[in-house]
Predict the 3D structure of the following.
Amino acid sequence: MNPIIRLVYRNLTISINPGFIIWQILFPLIYIFVAGYAYTSLIENVPFGTKDLSYPAFLASGMIGFNIMNSTLISGIIIWNDRRHGMFEQIMSGPYTRSDYILSNIVTIGIIGLVSAGLITAVGYPVFFESVDFSIVTIPLLIFASVVGAILFGSIASIISTRLRSSEGFNVIINTVFLFFAFASTAFYPAQGAPQPLATAFYINPLSYLVDIVRAGIFGQITDFVIMEMIFLIVLASILFVIATKLLTKLDF
Amino acid sequence: MLCIQTSNLTKKYGSSLAVDGIDLEIKSGQVFGFLGPNGAGKSTVIKLLTTLMPPTKGKLSVLGIDAAKSPLEIRRKIGVVLQQPSYEMTLSVENSLDKYGMMWDVDKKIRKQRTEELLTSFGLQDIRKKKNDDLSIGQRRRVQVAREFMHDMELLFLDEPTVGLDPSARRDLLDFLKKQVQKTGLTIFYTTHVLSEAEYLCDNVAIINKGKILAVDSPNELKNRFGREKTIKINLSNTSLSLNELLSDIPDCKIELEPETTITINSSNSEIVLMNILKILNQNNITINDLSAIPTNLEEIFLKVVSDSNEPDN
Ligand SMILES: Nc1ncnc2c1ncn2[C@@H]1O[C@H](COP(=O)(O)OP(=O)(O)OP(=O)(O)O)[C@@H](O)[C@H]1O
Ligand SMILES: [Mg+2]
């Protein structure tokens, strides 16, 4: 078996447990159904491109992006635990190279991101089927979002986990950063109607771009703006990936 | 065949010199003990030999492979148990062994069989379902050492593997290692502070201090070389006579009055010194309570070699 596949298999075995599944799959679903319908009385319709989406449909599609981001936390946690519990050194003194290690993490979050995005799409389908406008670019766009999103947020999680030393610090910082991404984004609420500073914050946030791309795929609204967002995501993901790899390569024993 | 060969191996952390120009030649099929006080550079040498980090200067080859050229090829053929703990929190003991074997690309059937054997050899059968996170420190260490035997290797590095093990687990491990060396021709590079362990296990030992090798030889040879000075202690009942005056002509003996009156002889001619002292004590009717010779063991030699190297003019 290829070394990267072996490491991916290990990553999946050590990180998939009931707690993770609840956090990753159950929580978003509950959120879509409970919050989605509870807030319908406040937010009736969300204009999106040429369409008006129901709030649950808007939220469910946002959850896919949110979920892709969340699944990358896993890679930060794996790197963090590997360093803290000596597995990083153990793996590095075995039949692996640093690039095997880095690539296996990317593949792991790619898989977790794709699977959970797929699950949320499948289960959320009844919620947004009315407005769905699937086309030949839907699946490629969802895959693009999962993969580029996984690399982008995975690199952020990896940078945080290689820079920090105390585990309190790790948890506080990684949760704060990801909470900021989640709530200052268009995943849960539309930017239109939000106060100006908040609306601006939404668009310095890569999660908003990611969510826009997912929505564009599902609701068939591919505009020039979405294409710019895709380019922006690719550029940002590449830069962060290079930084994350450098930091991981320089990690001392 | 030479299993490990280094020349002028040097490692600096910033400006501090952790390994200071080490030349080593270690033959295959033996247990090689690497002894030294805290901070001597033992773990750093292991990290260099296992290609975890590159040396600042010098050359090394392991199993005939140049570490600067093909580190991965070396790592495929060795096993390493580092000094610090290493485990996956969420895995059970049996799963840790199995998954570790998987990471080494060991066939599933062989993995299953080895897991059973190792669980038994390392006394882990009772806790095989427990999660690593819930193990005691010594149990975790046992799992860490055991899982290294899931894969085949030609050379195994063990950095203080017995720390945290109870005496019987310790002895079991040493016997297990001896058996492995006999059975498979494995070479083991073994660091420890427990000198009796090194004496029991190792064919050859090196003593290292402050990044430099002070001596390399078999434990017996080292005893012959450094162990000629014997230490004898004489314990006396209190006496009103001044021992210092009585024994002023006798070399190589030290007198202590507190907490008990003792004379310590430390000399390469300790038997003769002893006879002279006994004669004087006898003439002055001083009674001896206890007389003991401290046997030469590796520990004494270790202490002597290391303390000599710490003297300023060395
Ligand atoms: N990562 C590091 N950065 C800076 N200095 C280090 C680092 N690791 C070790 N050292 C220093 O290098 C020297 C050798 O350390 P090393 O860990 O090799 O000792 P050791 O012989 O294994 O000691 P011990 O018996 O305590 O395990 C020490 O002086 C130590 O302070
Ligand atoms: Mg050490």
Q: What stands out?
A: The two ends of chain B are 34 Å apart (CA to CA). Chain B touches chain A through 25 residues (CB under 8 Å). Chain B has a mean pLDDT of 90.
